[in-house]
From TrEMBL, chain A:
The keyword Iron applies. Keywords: Iron. Pfam families: FeoA (PF04023). Residues 1-77 form the Ferrous iron transporter FeoA-like domain. The lineage of its organism: Bacteria, Pseudomonadati, Pseudomonadota, Alphaproteobacteria, Acetobacterales. This is Ferrous iron transport protein A. InterPro entries: Fe-transptr_FeoA-like, FeoA, FeoA_core_dom, Transcriptional_repressor_C.
UniProtKB/TrEMBL annotation, chain B:
The chain crosses the membrane at residues 222-243, 278-301, 356-382, 394-416, 450-470, 490-507, 514-534, 554-579, 591-611. The lineage of its organism: Bacteria, Pseudomonadati, Pseudomonadota, Alphaproteobacteria, Acetobacterales. It comes from the Bacteria. InterPro entries: Fe2_transport_prot_B_C, FeoB_GTPase, G_FEOB_dom, Gate_dom, GTP-bd, P-loop_NTPase. Keywords: Membrane, Transmembrane, Transmembrane helix. Residues 9-177 form the FeoB-type G domain. This is Ferrous iron transport protein B. Gene3D superfamilies: P-loop containing nucleotide triphosphate hydrolases (3.40.50.300).
Length: 79, 619
């Protein structure tokens, strides 16, 4: 499952960040913002139009990510 | 030798993530001893301040732009990276890096601190917002953190008085050498996790964060949009209604001053120059200071409170439909105060094409310099009555003018982006913690704006007013002339000369005259009209009497046409200059000026024709 498919309120653990292209700046920045394997993430809100962007919470920090950005975050399957 | 070293100020730089409370700390440490300028060659704002430590040591403190990483993705972050590493041209390497972390956000901020630490330069870590962390139930073992990091760690609450005293004490004896590399070959994220596990405990579980509760409303698809719309609407109502009493007070003061000068001086050229040129010219614009400050206050409060990025979240999709991202919202909203800082704020947009489009449409956002013109025309031509018992018709018209500008900006952005390839525009925007805006920070921000505004009045506006007064007073009318004196002056000739260009959109020759100095600064158009009509009419005092003169001499259609003109017209040299600097060439300046003039002319023409057809023409 990917971060943009997570239902609001539920928590999941990040498995890895997927690079879409060579030198994927978005993926690099996501890692720098703390989206690294093992971190728990949660969706706090969807944008009003087409559920885009998504607001996610990681640690005590909240970020607004577009769906294409959030889809780079691959989540661990709930065991 | 030692004494000399002691006397030289210590060069320190503040670094940290965005939203770590760095600017509040900077304000706390340096107070009003700040100098705001630009870094050489780029338009990234450079803020430097001075402070003295308890033992009397002078420190020059540089406030570097906030950065998430030293792997820069924007011009802002590139400046921080280069200054920290000591390779920014014209900027000596700081002798001490003060890395500011928010204690509430250590996971993110420690990572950056570790990155800065890898530079091996002398550094201090400041744990800021300690009070907020305590409220979240976090307990931080500061001695342990200092031991593990191997650099001095002090705590601070930047928004409280004396909240940075530990840091000041430490600056008396700053570390002179950089930290040694951390042992082992650990990944930076693993180090962060280990530090958090060792040094941070959460003894008391806090039920729910304020942010979670507020965000449920603020980011809600329906309520969130309603809140946003209400905030914007109240903002424009406030600009109009709250500002009225202080504006009346300033107006009375200026009028009184002008009358006093008129009585003291004998009739003649000097009296006319001072009263009709200088005082009337500067006075008509100074009157708008309260209004401009209220607008800036709103924008500052929205910025400081952490609301703006949430508005960007809500509007991202709408911006995306015009080919922009929510990131463009912040520079565009700042452009409502003034397009110059707005265009400069576009540097936080990573995508070059997005940035260019945002720069091109920023002048369409109704800047505060247009307010005097709008206010004057609305007061003169729109009846002052309440609508639905709640709103004021003046406020509604003003709101409508702003909406018209926003809609046309979206359309222009859409047209501009249509040619380009569909590339990905990153949003990746942090939604910071909510903060009660700090009074000192608001005060400092407003003070800087007021100084900028008043120095414009003092320089450009007074100069232009005097020049215009001279042009409109000479040559004197021939003896036996029947028309008003101004018709025979140079201004009259110039006005009549360019009238054919603007007659099709309903402008009078007096408006044509006012448009020329309005190029220097939009608000000058108001004082120019005051000067033209003051010397053209009888013995009147410009500021107070302009409204009735205009409503008597212009038709409603002319007024509406001028309003439409001002929604679009690119009449501001500073904006064009900053576009040139930001885009590095004249091409975009030409493009901007041309398309805005075209739009302005077309909009005025349509407005004038429609108003004529509806019976708003000259009676």
């Amino acid at each position: 499952m990917r971060l943009n498919e997570l239902s609001p309120g539920s928590e999941a653990i990040i498995d890895h960040i997927e690079d879409r292209e060579a030198d994927d700046v978005v993926a690099v920045r996501l890692r720098e913002l703390g989206f690294v394997p093992g971190e728990p993430v949660r969706i706090i809100a969807f944008g009003p139009f087409g559920a885009d962007p998504v607001a996610v919470k990681i640690g005590f920090t909240r970020f607004a990510l577009r769906r294409v950005e959030a889809s780079r975050v691959v989540l661990r399957d709930a065991a | 030798m030692d004494a000399m070293v002691e006397n030289l100020p210590l060069r320190a730089a503040l670094v940290g993530n965005p939203n770590c409370g760095k600017t509040a700390l900077f304000n706390q440490l340096t107070g009003s001893r700040q100098k705001v300028a630009n870094y050489a060659g780029v338009t990234v704002e450079r803020k430097e301040g001075r402070l003295t430590t308890p033992s009397g040591r002078a420190v020059r403190l540089l406030d570097l732009p906030g950065a998430y990483s030293l792997t820069a993705t924007s011009p802002d972050e590139a400046v921080t990276r280069d200054v920290c590493a000591g390779r920014y041209r014209g900027e000596p390497a700081p002798e001490l890096l003060i890395c500011v972390l928010s204690a509430t956000n250590l996971r993110l901020h420690l990572r950056f601190a570790l990155e800065v630490r890898q530079l091996g330069r002398p550094m201090i870590v400041v744990l800021n917002m300690l009070d907020a962390a305590r409220k979240q139930g976090l307990a931080i073992d500061v001695p342990r953190l200092q031991q593990e990091l191997g650099v001095p760690v002090v705590t601070a609450v930047a928004i409280r008085k004396n909240g940075a005293s530990d840091l000041l004490d430490l600056l008396d004896h700053p570390p002179l050498v950089g930290p040694a590399p951390l042992p082992g070959n650990e990944d930076i994220h693993a180090t962060v996790r280990r530090l958090l596990a060792d040094c941070v405990t959460r003894p008391s579980a806090v039920a729910e964060e304020v942010e979670d509760r507020l965000d449920r409303w603020v980011l809600h698809p329906v309520w969130g949009l309603l809140i946003l719309f209400a905030l914007m609407f109240v903002m424009f109502q406030a600009v109009f209604s709250w500002a009225q009493p202080p504006m009346d007070a300033v107006d009375a003061l200026v009028t009184g001053f002008g009358e006093t000068v008129r009585h003291i001086l004998p009739d003649g050229v000097l009296q006319s120059l001072l009263v009709d040129g200088v005082i009337a010219g500067a006075g008509t614009v100074i009157v708008y200071l309260p209004q401009i400050l209220i607008l800036f206050l709103w924008i500052l409060v929205l910025e400081e409170s952490g609301y703006l990025p949430r508005a960007a979240f809500l509007l991202d999709r709408i911006m995306a439909s015009a080919g922009l991202s929510g990131r463009s919202f912040i520079p565009l909203l700042s452009s409502f105060a003034c397009a110059v800082p707005g265009i400069m704020a576009t540097r936080t947009i990573q995508n070059p094409r997005d940035r260019l489009t945002t720069i091109l449409i920023a002048p369409l956002m109704t800047c505060s310099a247009r307010l005097p013109v709008y206010t004057l025309l609305i007061a003169a031509f729109i009846p002052d009555r309440s609508v639905g018992g709640l709103f004021n018709l003046h406020g509604l018209v003003l709101f409508g003018l702003y909406i018209a500008a926003i809609l046309s900006a979206l359309i222009v952005a859409w047209v501009l982006k249509r040619g380009g390839k569909a590339t990905e525009h990153p949003l990746l925007l942090e939604l910071p913690a909510y903060r009660l805006p700090n009074l000192r920070d608001l005060g400092l921000g407003l003070w800087q704006r007021a100084v900028i505004f008043l120095s414009r009045v003092g320089t450009i506006i007074v100069t232009v007013s005097v020049l215009l007064w001279a042009l409109s007073s000479f040559p004197a009318p021939p003896t036996g002339a029947t028309a008003p004196a101004i018709d025979y002056s140079l201004v009259g000739m110039i006005g009549h000369w360019i009238l054919p260009v603007f007659a099709p959109i309903g402008f009078t020759w007096q408006i044509c005259v006012a448009l020329i100095p309005g190029l220097a600064a939009r608000e000058v158009a108001v004082s120019a009209l005051a000067t033209v009509y003051a010397t053209g009419g009888s013995d009147t005092d410009a500021a107070a009497q302009l409204t009735p003169i205009l409503s008597a001499q212009w038709s409603l259609a002319t007024a509406l046409s001028l309003l439409a003109w001002y929604v679009f017209a690119p009449q501001c040299f500073s904006t064009l200059a900053v576009i040139r600097r930001e885009t590095g060439g004249w091409k975009m300046v030409t493009v901007t000026a041309t398309y805005l003039f075209g739009l302005a002319y077309a909009a005025s023409f349509v407005t004038w024709r429609v108003a004529l057809a509806l019976g708003g023409g000259p009676s």
